[in-house]
Amino acid sequence: xxxxxxxxxxxxxxxxxxxxxxxxxxxxxxxxxxxxxxxxxxxxxxxxxxxxxxxxxxxxxxxxxxxxxxxxxxxxxxxxxxxxxxxxxxxxxxxxxxxxxxxxxxxxxxxxxxxxxxxxxxxxxxxxxxxxxxxxxxxxxxxxxxxxxxxxxxxxxxxxxxxxxxxxxxxxxxxxxxxxxxxxxxxxxxxxxxxxxxxxxxxxxxxxxxxxxxxxxxxxxxxxxxxxxxxxxxxxxxxxxxxxxxxxxxxxxxxxxxxxxxxxxxxxxxxxxxxxxxxxxxxxxxxxxxxxxxxxxxxxxxxxxxxxxxxxxxxxxxxxxxxxxxxxxxxxxxxxxxxxxxxxxxxxxxxxxxxxxxxxxxxxxxxxxxxxxxxxxxxxxxxxxxxxxxxxxxxxxxxxxxxxxxxxxxxxxxxxxxxxxxxxxxxxxxxxxxxxxxxxxxxxxxxxxxxxxxxxxxxxxxxxxxxxxxxxxxxxxxxxxxxxxxxxxxxxxxxxxxxxxxxxxxxxxxxxxxxxxxxxxxxxxxxxxxxxxxxxxxxxxxxxxxxxxxxxxxxxxxxxxxxxxxxxxxxxxxxxxxxxxxxxxxxxxxxxxxxxxxxxxxxxxxxxxxxxxxxxxxxxxxxxxxxxxxxxxxxxxxxxxxxxxxxxxxxxxxxxxxxxxxxxxxxxxxxxxxxxxxxxxxxxxxxxxxxxxxxxxxxxxxxxxxxxxxxxxxxxxxxxxxxxxxxxxxxxxxxxxxxxxxxxxxxxxxxxxxxxxxxxxxxxxxxxxxxxxxxxxxxxxxxxxxxxxxxxxxxxxxxxxxxxxxxxxxxxxxxxxxxxxxxxxxxxxx
DNA sequence: GTGAGTCCTG
DNA sequence: CAGGACTCAC
Length: 830
Prior knowledge:
The chain has helices at about 10-30, 35-60, 65-70, 90-110, 115-130, 140-145, 160-170, 180, 195-220, 225-245, 250-255, 260-280, 290-330, 335-350, 355-360, 365-380, 380-395, 400-410, 420-455, 460-465, 475-480, 485-495, 505-510, 515-520, 530-545, 555-560, 575-585, 590-595, 600-620, 625-630, 635-650, 675-685, 695-700, 705-735, 755-760, 770-790, 800-810, 825-830.
């Protein structure tokens, strides 16, 4: 996995870790890497074939799309008369396949309003076919179980026709035995069949029947036990492989779901089987009975997986149907007639044709196929169940009295009144829906196909089901009971999210899960995947501002990034910020400050200070600034400052009294220093360079003093002095350089450069008249520096201390007005 | 040990 | 302007 330069180290590490895990997993569970790779390729190829088939379903509305399908499946499919069932296996095979394909096309036609559903049906068809039947064929599964006999009412006579048919189509290579190639369930995969239980039972029974057939065949030819076994095993493996290729992915997504205990079962079972498989190479002579037992276990696992997958698909299908019904619920009856007719026909298709549909017989779709399907389904109790369910669903969605009309409509699909205006509207709606679904579907399909087409650089044979498997691979497959089966699938699943998006996942989650696409394209290897619903929920929850966060602690993005620390944030309304606007000496709390200073140079100063404060805040201090922001959005500067100061308080751990003061309490005592306090301190510097702590307390009586506040104020003045002395030294040296020889030539006036620099620093707004005394002190200081430098005292590291001593004695008394909290306002208004 | 102050850095 | 390191006096 290529590391992106822009990725942070953490991300890179994470990615690497994930990849490593993935590799470990794969390697750990792979007995034969090469074989596993081949199997993976096979799986990919098959998945590709399935995708292409689905795409064809989308793009091809033609009833003859079966040609394409068969071509892609590498199966030469002669076109025979529909409904003709040959007694020979090969013919039966062909017919069944053709039927299936045709049926699929007819589904496509009827399902056009639901492109996604069409694909789902395709996939389901594949799976169901592999599993040997449709959901509603549980009873038939019984029949098949009893003896592979043909189904009464079904045109198919072989018990194992359908699934292997698909297998043959997708794998296109196995010398499948007739039994394997023939499925007892030559019926269309019904999506409307919501009876999962029956489907699974049928599936299991079909598997069992096949296994028994295999056993029988093996027992009849002991002389060829090993080769036959190999062959059978290979076939079975291929079959299982194919099944897993489609079956596994959805279970994986569900495996991750905490609420899916079956996922764990599958996982454990898979691991168990893998272990078993790894042992098998040393037990080449083990009885086939044992293999059969294992096969049964595997079938059960597959069944469970299939069940989960079907559940997902059915959920999505229901969502689609409900949406569709809701859309047309508001339309009139005529619309219902037409659209519901179509829809129900589709549903009937998915549920292997409903009685109603069988009655009509005038469907647009292939009549023969449908009829045969109907014939089969008519005798199926499960079909009535499905039908009843569909009706109930309709009733729930439609107004009373709709049902009879619907029934009548059901009889004549496509007979909906074309002249109805509502019908036209409905058509428009349908078109819109189609387009939307088509676009979504196209996106997903393109993505999947793209991904599939890229990585393995498949050869033509790999792109589609390989025609043959290298003989040398047989032993591996046989011995390991297809050990690569799980391995490859695991690998596919593990990297499915990144490298190989599972086609089933994409399709399954497509209709109702817009996130599915993102989910798949996201680089989330080995990361626990949520079920689509979970995903959706999660994303929605995130969108809804993370329901997991405590309401009181809703940190803003900034606070979150800064590492908001609730414990240190005891007061809901930090006073530094809160109090500041209310006592602002510069004007009204709400805007007076900004309104006045914004136009003045001082506002820039304050902005700068604010910026610095913000910088400080951003430098890793923890503040509940989101409260400030929300409470005084009009005072970003003061807010920041207050925060900064409150931060200081927090850091000092002197927050005991903070909770006592509320910004609305009217108290003049602030918990922190505001920008105005800083400004005031600067102005005070014109009078005193070395204020004592007591003095500061006196002049900042509106501030609740603590160690931190005092230190802060002292630090302020220290900084003032620093700048002051720096300027003095600077100008003293400059004077020396200018050739001044005597201190008498040195003077500090209001228009001199030194004063301007100082005034700019302490009185940027120039809205305060600097006392003359300060000029005197500045002049004295400058001369001191000049003399010291001239005397060469600056060689002494502490040569300034003597100057400090002198200057500290020059402090003058600060006017009483500075003791007023509103001194700034008063001073600046003078 | 603590506070005040300075120096240096950012 | 703040913070850290450091010194120094108490």
